[in-house]
Fold this sequence. Notes:
Blueprint: H1 6-9, H2 15-28, E1 34-35, H3 47-55, H4 70-84, E2 94-97, H5 100-106, H6 108-111, E3 120-125, H7 130-137, E4 141-146, H8 162-166, E5 168-173, H9 186-198, E6 202-206, H10 221-224, E7 232-237, E8 250-254, H11 256-265, H12 275-285, H13 289-311, E9 316-317, E10 324-328, H14 334-343, E11 346-347, E12 349-350, E13 361-365, H15 370-385
Parallel strand pairs: 1-11, 3-4, 3-5, 5-6, 6-7
Antiparallel strand pairs: 2-8, 7-8, 9-10, 10-13, 12-13
Helix pairs in contact: 3-12, 4-12, 5-7, 13-15
Residues 39, 99-101, 128, 174, 178, 206, 208, 237, 239, 245, 250 line the site of pyridoxal-5'-phosphate (PLP).
Amino acid sequence: MVTSNPALQQLGGYPLARLQDLANELRAQDVPLADFAIGDPDEPTPEHIRRALIEAVGPVSRYPTALGQRALRESVAAWLARRHGVEVDPDVHVLPSAGSKEAIFHLPLAVLDPHGPRRHVLWGEPGYPVYGRGALFAGGASDPVALEPDQGWRLELEELETSRLQRACTAWVNYPHNPTGASADLDYYRRQLRTAREHGLLLASDECYQEIWFDRPAPSALEAADGDFTGLLAFVSLSKRSGMTGYRSGAIVGDPELIARLRALRPNVGTASPDFVQAAAIAAWNDQEHVDERRKIFAAKRAVLLEFLATAGIEVSGSDATFYVWFRAPGGDDAAYAQALLEERIVATPGRAFGPAGEGWLRLALVPTVEGCHDAVARWSAALQAGRLPI
Ligand SMILES: Cc1ncc(COP(=O)(O)O)c(C=O)c1O
């Protein structure tokens, strides 16, 4: 019998997959669904980005490098300067990734000593499960911190016991936040960076939803560093910004010493982006117009849902950025409410899919079109009036 990595036994299945399976069964029966479950919107990738990829496919195929093309690192640096007023050196502070997921998962391989006293990774729950899973597979431990609605779903490191901070190597923050849509301001990042540094922790900021904001632009943790990125890494991505989830392209930016370690580690991993994807990524980072257009589309969908939820008296929390709307389950049971919505052909994700601290809440991803959102809320409203859903 071949041995097994014990971390596999601790996974318990990817939580979003089960609900999607159920929705897929309905789809297989040709039941039309308003699918608000998976964070992968349908809006097309802008044409000039697709063209950049196609034009870069040459007759000869070569291995890409983990360091990536300098032009790509430059375009990330230029975007950071334009969008966040942050100056970075493309050769020292920036490393491309194949999307942020793999970069998040692999980070502990560079910073976690499985035999040392600091093998824990802190992250906020409800949250993206990959922070904890990366820790587990690197021989460490996941240490989720329950987030609270009355704290705006923000992880406050200074409120954790010192012993908990000092047994961790990394703390993940993720604003705008999946799944609650909560956001954070610059002061928040300053506080977290200060506490992380005090305790010798890496502050890792997952900023893949950075460009999906509504009232005021979301800051980057890099802005809080005032040019000294020691102990700080930000993970940025084109997936949500440019409608490029299938391209797999992002970047890791920050602490030069940690970037140097990742430059040593990552050629071993095999996640270097193909050169034609890098060409598309350069086109995407260099253009802001399509991002502003996408943001308007999400704002229109969000307005439809927020208006309906307010009229229906359903409590919304967070939800001020990202393409997620987060609401309290009427009746209190998120799984039961998701099931009842599915019977109305509306797919929402029960909050418990993001960990026990998400129980009692549900997430709507702004995936259907504006028209699809209108249809869904009409059905939802009719079901409420007919008494088929709890209030
Ligand atoms: C919080 C969060 N981080 C990271 C990712 C991964 O994004 P990507 O790998 O497409 O950049 C996702 C994807 O949904 C996410 O929700």
